[in-house]
Amino acid sequence: MENTSRHTEPKQGWLRPDLVIAPMPAQSAAEAIAQLGARLQAGGFVKPSWVQAAIEREKTFATGLPTPEVGVAIPHTDGEHVLQQAIAVGVLAEPVLFGEMGSPENTVPVRLVCALAVAQNEFLVKLLQQLAQMFQTPGVLSQIVSATSPAQIARIFEDHIELTEDITT
Asked: Of all helices (H) and strands (E), which one includes residue 116?
């Protein structure tokens, strides 16, 4: 595998088909986070502490977004749990409840979970902005949840996420 920072192809590094679980069976937000965290850990993107840190963070800083088409959650942790930046995506077979971002006393039935492994705060802000914009684009969330393969889901994200900075620094 070639790994050159001159050929900055962050789309390949951020979300790869092997980081997509669709359909993903889960009975709870914690179970969904654990499955995606296990996928990130298996790929060498996060430390073993990532899953528990993401679950704990979710209790205080909920990440559910009540988007019009499909509920979305974006669990993540502090950078200390991240080895390499990536996104893992799970399309839930049935919705699970996540706390609502900004109003954790409310819940959001979520079908799309985007687990972020981001080591640097400036990238986290840019990535969250781009994800929010992507999720507000009519039809995109429906495309993702009806996609027939992990590669198709990865391509949809690639079409919308453009982080051109060298993600290795």
From this structure: strand 103-117
